Each structure stands twice: as structure tokens, then as C-alpha cells.
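Journal club side-thread
Mid-discussion, someone asked how the predicted structure for our own chain would compare to the paper's figures. Pasting it here so we can look after the session.
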Amino acid sequence: MSEIIRLTLGSLATNCYIIPTGSENAIVIDPASAAEVEATLSSREMRAGAILITHGHYDHFAGAAGLKKYYNAPIYAPELDSEMFSDRDKSWARFMDGVEFKPIFPDKLFENGEKLNICGIEFTVMGAAGHTAGSCLLFCEQFGAIFSGDVLFRNGCGRTDGFSGSERQMVQTLREISQIKGDYTVCTGHGEITTLAEEQEHSL
């Protein structure tokens, strides 16, 4: 199976990930814009089969409405952030300078502990509140990867001062992450990709 593709998009340099699924379809995770994703998929003769959102900040779903319209791809997103997906203020859309706010209405809302089979790729959801109430880690064993959104960065974690953010919950989340067994590539929402082992050793 092909490797995960990373695009860094938008004014906040948000990492968007494209997972080829072994057919002409791909899963798009956290698209900050649509045009670059469409161009990348077209160049590789792929289509978006699904769109997966890690949390409710606009820099992680600004391109989702456009991709859904173009590909008719279902959107998967965390239930606890559901009110953020149609609210410009709660989703921090103001930080996306000059970008029109386009709300999304997810086709599937998921919760902590759910297992998702999306285009033949399996994800396990770990609730990871703190950055937002619905922030999560998405474990993908087939790639040995965790898609961490803005929960865990290389040598850091997401801020907690936005809508539904909580420093107390973030501390608890990081404590739980420090106890996860096994090593994974951590596909972060911003900055460089890291590994779980590195973060457990140096920053958790």
C-alpha cells in the first residue's frame, strides 16, 4: 500500500494527510483547503472517498465542504465538537485570514472508543480532550500511525484557551498518552511528524 501523503496548507500551516486506500479512493484528514488537495489527488489519479476531521477548529476543516461537494465524499468528525462545525467564532475561523467560512454537516459523528472502517482502512478513536472537548487521537494500525490533530505535537501540545478547551483535561490527556504501549508515527496537526516513543521520552 502506498505511503501517507502530507500536505501543509493554509495560513496556519496545517498538516493535511491523504491516505491511499489501495483503489482510486483516498481518505483526506484535516483539509485546510480544497484546491491543493484536489490537485494532489488528480495528479495521482485518485478521488476523495472520505473526509476525516480530528477536531472542530476551522484550519482543520476549511476545505471539507468543497471536497464533499466535488467528490460527494462523506465527512467523519467527533461528536463532542459538533457545534463548532457550523459556528465561525467557536471554530476559530477568524485565524484563517481571508478564507470564507463554509460550515460542514458531518455524515458520521464518532465518539471515544469507536472503531471506524473507512474505505477499508480501520481507525480506533481515543478521546483526547483539552485542546477542544472533541479532540481525539485516531489510531491506524495498518500504517502504524496516530493522527493527533492539535493534541500532540513534536515537543509540545495544543493550546487550551479556545471554545471547550481545558487545561485540566489536557493534563489528563497527556498523562494517558504517556501510558500508551507500543510505538507509532505521530502525524501531527502542525509542525514536524514525530513518534510516540520520542514524545514519551522527552516531552510527556
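Post-session note: Helices lie at 35-43, 64-71, 167-178, 196-202.
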